[in-house]
Design goal:
By secondary structure, this protein is an alpha+beta fold.
Length: 742
């Protein structure tokens, strides 16, 4: 038996390949006779395609040209609602919508050819704001421009208003945000009439791509193979979009009878792919004279773009987090995702929660001001505690002490002393300093019945070399999946991580363990791996191949001997919900998530009232995430999420013009660099979760939720002017301050 592995910072399993250049990303891969593919996209936000014109100066006979009429199956990108075409056929509904595909061996000539295709489009009325969508200024989707609605109710909100000591209203907006992964989107496809289609690419969810290709090409599952190449970041941006580019590469490969590589450049990637949903949230909050919450009435609206993609599930998570970690007897959340003629918005780390939590934590500070109460005192009065219920009626069964997290965060940040000192110093300085915080939670795993519906499966098996293979479709995208899977598997068996081999996701080899999203990889899939590995060890022992106590070499010998006599020992584990978990999809009530991570983040800022520029000067992140599997990887997840949250709060402004992103370059889409970031001080509280591997919960999405409200609360503390939309760019702050002093 080896020393314990959980709680230790085992080196990353893929690190050597990445730092030596041996790791093979999709653009590193080359196949014989491979050609390159590109997309010709709509310049119009909405319109009817009248004609496709090809400039005669281009030798078109050398090209493979694909349009919608070349699709052998269903012209859609299979996901939740099959409303998005793979290629527009008669109408376009957003700028950058794919219409024509081209392939050629010469990349330079291919670019010339793209510019030589003209799409003659008759303009149709378009929608660019949620107000115009809700007002049906034009109907651009269905009968009412609404992709999805939810109604979450607890108690009776309407009976409370007349008895409230104070009612506070607020409206808050968040903008779109680009995922900005290091490696742009890319796919290679190869088609064989006998064996079918194989694609290799940068992705999060191989089985999403698998399903999309089956429908598009009208092929059975056994004739579709999807292989994840090394993936350079994703953050949700490679959840559903890779299905589209895989479909494009596959169509070109089928028609050309050659392998086709499609790699987006940065500008194309930023302009065409999905982003975080812009949002608008309206709050109406009632409190009693002592500051106890009586009612929260919340309206939450997302701009979903032109097609539904993942808007329904993003809306769901945003809805369920909209009332936060507070105990309130009466809650109503009415939410909608609406259609506009922007490119479709999709998954981004946090998945709707950053938008609704920003609004909630700004509203909590606003209510505290109206009560003439400190923001921390107001929250302490209303924190949910073990045995109390959240907005869905879910009883909190696990231990939770947000007050303790708040105490620790305040001690580490010196919150109270700085708040007092800054108030004094700001009277004499043009650079105003402030400190603010946010208290929040994030549910791990899919919402409600989602995990039961997916029914994730993992497998482990012995090899003739005396090792154990872990087979799952969960992808390594830079977050450390392969490392923590190795630690979990090795700990369950009692061996070292060197004896564990995590198989690269390939749908011809690994079972469907669901997508790599929703803070589920460690808690859900890791638990299945732990269970399967425990079964494998027990089977070897019961078969007489392994004693109760064993060395590493004895275990390897047992694997070799079993495999030689019987073939690989294979053990499977399928998801089953923890006992006592119940969710009603119709009423939207019950246990929304099996477990939550809890956090308090404190931000310190300096804002120059001459330039209206804001810098975050210190950041403290305290969270309870169950048992920490790998401290270095966990801290890295928090630091990365906070960095993205700082960009969301202050810098990353997507500029739209007639539905098109006009700042789709790194020169004018401003994201924080390392020079713009403060020290990010990360601290963990550990309360083991009984149904996670070694007590772990999910943590990947949590750190994106808290930075924006903490930062904007700090800005208001500094300048004494409310800021209700982000990103809080200098222009936004200048306008707010000018309006405040008119």
């Amino acid at each position: 038996m080896t020393r314990p592995l959980i709680g230790f910072s085992v080196p990353r399993r893929e690190a050597l390949g990445k730092v030596t250049g041996q790791a093979r990303y999709v653009d590193d891969l080359k196949l014989p006779s491979m050609v390159h593919g590109i997309t010709v996209c709509s310049p119009a936000a909405r319109g009817r395609i009248r004609e496709i014109l090809y400039d005669k100066r281009i030798p078109w006979h050398e090209f493979t040209i694909v349009t919608a009429e070349d699709i052998p199956g269903k012209n859609c990108v299979a996901l939740i609602v099959d409303d998005q075409p793979c290629l527009a056929e008669t109408v376009v509904n957003h700028p950058e919508e794919p219409v024509v595909l081209l392939a050629h061996r010469d990349k330079q000539l291919l670019e010339e050819a793209r510019r030589a295709v003209t799409l003659d489009i008759e303009p149709l009325p378009a929608i660019f704001t949620v107000d115009d969508a809700l007002g049906k200024k034009a109907l651009v989707w269905g009968e009412d421009n609404v992709f999805k609605t939810f109604l979450l109710e607890k108690g009776d909100v309407d009976k409370v208003w007349s008895d409230a000591a104070l009612i506070v209203e607020g409206e808050y907006e968040t903008g779109a945000q680009e995922q900005l992964y290091v490696e742009p989107q890319g796919m290679i496809a190869s088609f064989d009439p006998q064996t079918g289609i194989t694609v290799w690419g940068s992705m999060q969810c191989p089985y999403y791509v698998h399903q999309a290709l089956m429908q598009l090409l009208d092929l059975p599952a056994k004739k579709v193979r999807v292989v994840q190449a090394e993936t350079g970041g994703a953050f949700g941006g490679k959840e559903e979009y890779p299905s589209l580019i895989a479909c494009h590469a596959a169509l070109l490969a089928k028609k050309s009878s050659r392998p086709v590589k499609m790699i987006y450049d940065r500008g194309e990637d930023m302009a065409a792919t999905t982003k975080r949903h812009p949002s608008r949230t309206r709050h109406r909050t009632a409190v009693d004279p002592d500051g106890k919450l009586l009612a929260m009435d919340i309206e939450f609206v997302l701009d979903g773009g032109a097609y539904s993609t993942l808007s329904s599930v993003v809306l769901s998570r945003g809805t369920l987090h909209a009332a936060g970690p507070y105990s309130c007897p009466n809650v109503r959340v009415r939410s909608k995702a609406v259609a506009t003629n922007h490119p479709p918005h999709g998954a981004f780390r946090g998945f709707g929660a950053p938008q609704s939590i920003f609004a909630l934590e700004r509203q909590m500070d606003r209510v505290a001001v109206a009560l003439r109460m400190s923001p921390d005192e107001f929250r302490r009065k209303n924190f949910v505690r073990q045995g109390e219920t959240l907005a869905t009626g879910q009883v909190i069964r696990e231990p939770v002490n947000l007050g303790q997290l708040l105490d620790r965060a305040f001690e580490l940040s010196d919150y109270h002393a700085k708040r007092q000192r800054f108030a004094h110093e700001n009277q004499l300085s043009e650079v105003k300093r402030g400190i603010g915080f946010a208290t929040f939670m994030h549910g791990a795993g899919f919402t409600g019945s989602g995990e039961r519906y997916i029914g994730s499966v993992v497998s482990v098996e012995t090899t003739a070399q005396g090792k154990v293979k872990v087979l799952a479709s969960s992808t390594e995208i830079g977050q450390g999946t392969n490392t923590i899977f190795s630690q979990i598997a090795a700990e369950a068996i009692g061996i070292g991580v060197e004896t564990i081999e995590v198989v690269q996701p390939d749908t011809s080899q690994v079972p469907n363990s669901g997508p790599t999203v929703a803070s589920r990889t460690c808690m859900i899939i890791g638990k299945l791996i732990e269970s399967a590995c425990t079964s494998l060890r027990q089977t070897l022992h019961q078969g007489g191949f392994l004693s109760q106590k064993f060395s590493e070499e004895e275990f390897r010998a047992a694997c070799r001997n079993y495999t030689r006599e019987h073939g690989p020992l294979k053990c499977h584990s399928e998801y089953a919900p923890p006992p006592g978990i119940y969710w009603d999809d119709q009423t939207y009530r019950g246990d929304a998530y099996a477990a939550y991570a809890w956090a308090v983040y404190v931000a310190e800022i300096a804002m120059d009232t001459r330039s209206f520029e804001t810098r975050v000067t210190d950041f403290v992140a305290v969270q309870e995430v169950g048992r920490v599997i790998n401290p270095v990887l966990a801290a890295g997840q928090i630091e990365g999420g906070v960095a993205q949250g700082i960009g969301f709060a202050l810098y990353e402004n997507v500029v739209w013009r007639e539905g098109r992103m006009v700042n789709s370059q790194m020169t004018n889409y401003i994201m924080p660099t390392s020079a713009d970031l403060p020290p990010i001080r990360v601290y963990f509280e550990e309360i083991p979760y009984a149904h996670g591997p070694s007590g772990a919960k999910g943590l990947g999405e949590l750190p994106i939720d808290g930075p924006a409200p903490a930062i904007v609360n700090a800005i208001e503390n500094a300048i004494l002017v409310p800021i209700n939309r982000i990103p809080a760019t200098p222009e936004v702050l200048m306008e707010a301050m000018e309006n405040a002093f008119v």
